[in-house]
Amino acid sequence: MPNQKILYVTTELFPYQEDSNMATMVSKMALKMHQDGNDVRVFMPRFGQISERKFQLHEVIRLSGMNIIINDLDQPLIIKVASLPGERLQVYFIDNEEYFKRKQFYVDDAGQPFTDNDERAIFFARGVIETIKKLNWVPDVIHLNGWMASFIPVYLKTFYKNDSYFNDSKIVLSVYNEENLALNESVEEKMKFDNITGLKAFKKPSFQNFVIESMDMVDVVLKGDEFLQEELDSAFSATKTTKSEYIEAEAINTLY
């Protein structure tokens, strides 16, 4: 079914990250749908490990310049764009000096989780939502991949609940066996600033618990890995959201 507008939001994408099932899956799904004649866009964080020179990233001035307020602090949103090597498929990068310049993904040199991983996820989720609106491009399908992307349905169902922009968009969440790190307990206070309260994930904030929280806020939950870790598998079984077992990337159009 071509001519759909499909948005992929991911924390990992080949070739910017390698040796990861998620990075490979998202790349294959996006390329498959792009080559089938759909209007496909991909959004991801501009982690410091991604070489701007090698992958020819450049800033999109007309999309940059917004500020995202995180816990009463203004953080400038920078949007960069590149095409997947050899393909006319645009990848948008959410960037901010404070959150994404560092060379590591989620832990410091001592192996400890960054204390602002929660803020980075909030900034990323809101940055994606605001940039899509600024593009004036309404996706038919929003396919979420990675723990940071799981903050998007949380925000759409709460902070943006009176905004009709995404009313007709169907949201798919792929669940993967990601490293599960604790998040700062102050995430509850920071999201309370955006009038988000009462999340189960606040009791024990972690990457995994926010993914589990978002399972009940989307249209379809899909196994991104064929076999999920125990807690994820239990949550997958328990959610009342429409579920799909693992699908090969080349067959993803059957889900849409």
Explain this structure to me?
The chain is of the alpha/beta class. It has a single domain (5-254), classed as 3-Layer(aba) Sandwich (Rossmann fold). It has helices at residues 21-35, 52-55, 97-100, 117-135, 151-157, 187-192, 207-215, 230-238; strands at residues 5-10, 39-45, 58-59, 67-70, 73-76, 78-83, 90-95, 141-145, 170-175, 220-223, 242-244. The strands form 2 sheets. The protein has a 9-stranded mixed sheet, with helices on both faces. A two-stranded antiparallel sheet has the order 4-5. Helix 4 packs across helix 5 (151-157) and helix 5 (151-157) packs across helix 7 (207-215). The longest helix is centred in the middle third of the chain and has 19 residues, at 117-135. The mean pLDDT is 95. InterPro entries: Starch_synth_cat_dom. Its EC number is 2.4.1.21. It catalyses: [(1->4)-alpha-D-glucosyl](n) + ADP-alpha-D-glucose = [(1->4)-alpha-D-glucosyl](n+1) + ADP + H(+).
Q: What order do the strands of the largest sheet run in, or round the barrel if closed?
A: 3-6-7-2-1-8-9-10-11
Strand proportion: 15-25%
Largest sheet: 9 strands, mixed
Distinct helical segment count: 8
H/E element sequence: EHEHEEEEEHHEHEHHEHE
**Text of the CATH class:** Alpha Beta
CATH level-4 homologous superfamily: Glycogen Phosphorylase B
- Average the pLDDT over all residues and give the rounded result: 95
Catalytic activity: [(1->4)-alpha-D-glucosyl](n) + ADP-alpha-D-glucose = [(1->4)-alpha-D-glucosyl](n+1) + ADP + H(+)
Pfam family, one: Glyco_transf_5
InterPro entries: Starch_synth_cat_dom
Keywords: Glycosyltransferase, Transferase
